[in-house]
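Morning. Coffee machine broken again, so started the prediction first thing and wrote up yesterday's gels while waiting. Chain of 330 residues, entered below exactly as on the submission form.
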Amino acid sequence: MRKKFFGFVLSTLLFAQWSPTQAQQSGKMFRIGFLDASTASGSAVLVNTLRQELSRLGWIEGKNITIEYRFAEQKEERLRELAAELVALKVDVLVVTGGEPALVAKKESSTTPIVMTGASDPIFLGLIASLARPGSNVTGLSARAYELNTKRLEVLKDAFPKLGRVGFLQSTQGSTKAKDFELKELRTAASALKVNVEAIETETNPKALESAFQAAKQKQVEAMMTAASRYFLAQAKRIVELANRSRLPAAYHQRAYVDQGGLMSYGVDYVDLYRRAAGYVDKILKGAKPGDLPVQQATKFEFVINLKAAKELGLTMPVDLLQRANQVIK
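Came back before lunch.
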């Protein structure tokens, strides 16, 4: 691959010492692939974060890198096609947004370096051998989604101590094995909290989501949670509208839902993940092998409460919970 790109043999040491400035001076243009299960608009903030951090590291679009963007528009069947396109373009590194795109990309190529920005559990999914030594063409960041589901449930219970039944919205798309594991882990935590979890699987189109919330009411749930699925992100506004209209307090996995009028969110600071992902891209473009770069777990989390939404729902949030929040929207 290095022979193909540079036209002559360089030693591993010299390749590793190449800097963005050297690449630019030599006229070398690296190609980065970006694969997302969601939409361009739904991922705009995160994409901009990645681009800005790459620029800070010396990688500037049109000068020494080009970025090939591919968005599956919530269509799972499109992921494989788009991954194949990017592999065929012989990108130098492929950035993927989550576990499912990472799985698809890895099946398409065992050699293209892949940087994941938020897989729930990359070891469980079979993407890597271990966090310390991934041992494959995949590295990046884990979002610890399964652990955070438990935390969101605890937050709901703290907000509403009498809570007995919670609806858990899951997408029909994605790995069945991963979704079953996610639900099992959540129900184990729910049992300790004396809460029943009702799984509600749904497609991510507006009509299906409306049916899902109707099903939630029929199951007499008292609150809602959403799985940390990229497939839901493009429909964040619609999901929030349906939850509020159904008078169901909800704990979301990402701040974007609160920005759309949702009650509260507890989850990974995805902006931080994408900023850190740029560091992996930087190292790989300078010659590092993905299998030698330890996978890092999310370390920054956001707990946001929207008092405007609480007022509209006729809810009073406990003072101690408000004090724990990173931000309270008034």
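The radius of gyration is 21 Å. Going to sketch it on the whiteboard this afternoon.
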